[in-house]
Design brief:
single chain; mainly alpha
Length: 250
């Protein structure tokens, strides 16, 4: 691996860690980059999933104030997300690589649609941001499980999906729900990463290590400065990279 590849992979790891903490679609940065460097789609996805786990930890630490008083909620939703992550990661390993390559472009397209409509989603969520109770109903649990399946199979825009589910099913402020989202998506990546380590022959450990180093820094930056980033610029960058990924896979 050349010095340029090392710098680039660490750099996109920083970007992905930041974006995952603020928005939740950092895979749309790292995954296409790994494809551009010649890694097979499944190898890129598995290595990326493992590499992004430390960034979720640093992001959660940065959101520790917003997480205060949410332990019961996180426990219940976390169990649902973990189960979903196991299912999704097993599906990735069981289904043939050709199926992954055929399905992923549609996942990326869905993620881009969610990003482009994020303002409308946020306006919809605005009507559901009253109160700070820890109540978690079946809709939230089922939604966390479904997002976990998606995240275990392919994590792009997992955070946006999860935040939408939380906002529509739980009455609380967006920042507190975003903090929970960081935990849940991190748990999904963690359990998927464990499955991949045990059962997958596709892990590129050098790539995972470089992404992990970058994502740790990105998680800190996302929690500290992410709210100051121009959302239009951020969405535009992700859309461009996502379109490149779709073109490469199709």
């Amino acid at each position: 691996m050349s010095a340029w590849h090392i710098i680039a992979i660490v750099g996109v790891g920083v970007a992905a860690g930041t974006i995952n903490t603020v928005v939740g679609s950092g895979t749309l940065i790292t995954f296409p980059t790994l494809l551009a460097f010649g890694y097979a789609p499944v190898t890129a996805n598995v290595s990326n999933t493992i590499g992004l786990v430390p960034g979720s930890v640093s992001g959660a630490i940065g959101y520790r104030d917003e997480l205060t008083g949410q332990s019961d909620r996180i426990l219940r939703l976390g169990c649902a997300a973990l189960l979903g992550g196991i299912v999704g990661s097993v599906l990735l390993l069981v289904l043939p690589a050709s199926a992954f390559k055929a399905i992923v472009p549609f996942f990326i397209a869905l993620a881009l649609i969610l990003i482009l409509t994020q303002k409308q989603i946020n306006r919809l969520l605005g009507d559901h941001r009253r109160g700070t109770g820890e109540g978690v109903g079946p809709v939230a649990l089922f939604g966390a499980f479904g997002c976990g399946i998606y995240g275990g199979y392919f994590g792009a825009a997992q955070g946006i999906l999860m935040l939408s589910v939380l906002g529509l099913s739980i009455n609380d402020t967006l920042q507190r729900l975003n903090a929970v989202k960081v935990i849940l998506t991190g748990l999904t990546n963690l359990v998927a990463g464990v499955v991949f380590v045990i059962a997958a022959p596709h892990v590129a450990w050098d790539v995972s290590g470089l992404i992990a180093a970058g994502s740790i820094v990105g998680g800190v930056l996302g929690a500290r400065y992410g709210r100051r980033l121009p959302p239009t610029l951020l969405r535009g960058l992700i859309v461009v990279v996502g379109i490149i990924a779709i073109v490469r896979l199709v």
